[in-house]
Amino acid sequence: MALDLDIDRIRELVDEGVRDKVYPGAVWAVGDHSNMAIGTPGVLDPDRPDEPMRHDTVFDVGVLTQILAVWPAVGTLVEDGTLRLDAELGDLWSAVRGRPLARVTVRHLLTHTAGVPLGADRHPDTGDGVLHDAVRRPPGEAVEYTDRAALVLGRLAEELSGRPLDALAATRVWQPLGMTRTCYGPLPAEAAARCAPTELDATGSRLRGTAHGSPAHPQGGVFSVLPDLAAFLRHLLQPGRHGGQSGFGPAWVQESLRIHTGGLTPPGGLFWRPAPGTDDIWMPHGSPGAGAWLSPQQGRWAVLLTNELYYTRDPAPLARIRDTFPTLAFA
């Protein structure tokens, strides 16, 4: 059964971003358990105008690194009984015992209520800076998005599993779901050549295959392609239906897609939050240039991938497109 979508309006919206130079190109998709509508407007790189965007273009997924790697890695540890949501870090981890993070729980980090600093500056060698800094406020007092939450949880997952986060995510999540082109960067030259370029580096060259921003792992951010993201989101709609047994299942998904923040605003689940103005469409915390949305109630998911940093670091030009896209995808 075909998706009931106003595809012309979606195409018009995403095409505007190419026309107005918000991004050189984009890859978008809206799907359910078995169907998918996609679009690939624009080009991979304005310096290579004959090379169009493709459905398998590789993207630096930015903040979605937290959802593709850290969140499911934590979920595998919760579901196998290694980790409890309300466990205090000081009881789990000698590295934070006696430190300000000791009274913070796993749930606090997943709901962005831990009160940890908003930046993600790290010690240049060991990354221990994020474990030792003072908190901004008592845990549970306010919802404040910070990428430090993912950095701390990623380190915790490594501590408890005895494995690097990239290996844990690959073996427990990506490989079982058939996500063969999802990995941490930096990418080898051949894969980087198929990657959408982003901002300029210190030498004046475009970043291609090297993550921008503050990643959720010392190695860098995650790179992925639309088919892999579709497999991941379909698994969230109905874990196990599409083959492959990921390390996390329906219990972790259901627990994450419900409000855990009480009366605090904005309301949020575990690394997911309701999209503004909705109570049945979920999106990751943060403001990613790469967007993902999920509605178990509607049985639908959506993805918008762009290399928006090609032109500017100002998030405003992309905001209207990113905010409007889910209203059309889930209309």
Output the structural class. Answer: alpha+beta
What's the N-to-C terminus distance?
A: 17 Å
Rg of Cα set: 19 Å
Number of strands: 9
Main sheet makeup: 4 strands, antiparallel
Mean of pLDDT: 91
Shape: globular
Could you state the order of secondary-structure elements as H and E?
Answer: HEEEHHHHHHEHEHHEEEEH
Q: Provide the spatial order of strands within the biggest beta sheet.
A: 2-1-9-8
Proportion of residues in extended strands = 5-15%
Can you describe this structure?
With 331 residues, the chain is of the alpha+beta class. It contains eleven helices and nine strands. The protein has helices spanning 7-19, 64-79, 89-92, 106-110, 129-132, 148-161, 165-174, 189-192, 226-237, 250-256, 316-329, and strands at residues 26-31, 36-39, 59-60, 183-184, 222-224, 272-274, 282-284, 291-295, 300-306. A four-stranded antiparallel beta sheet has the order 2-1-9-8, with helices on both faces. α2 (64-79) runs parallel beside α6 (148-161). The longest helix is centred in the first third of the chain and has 16 residues, at 64-79.
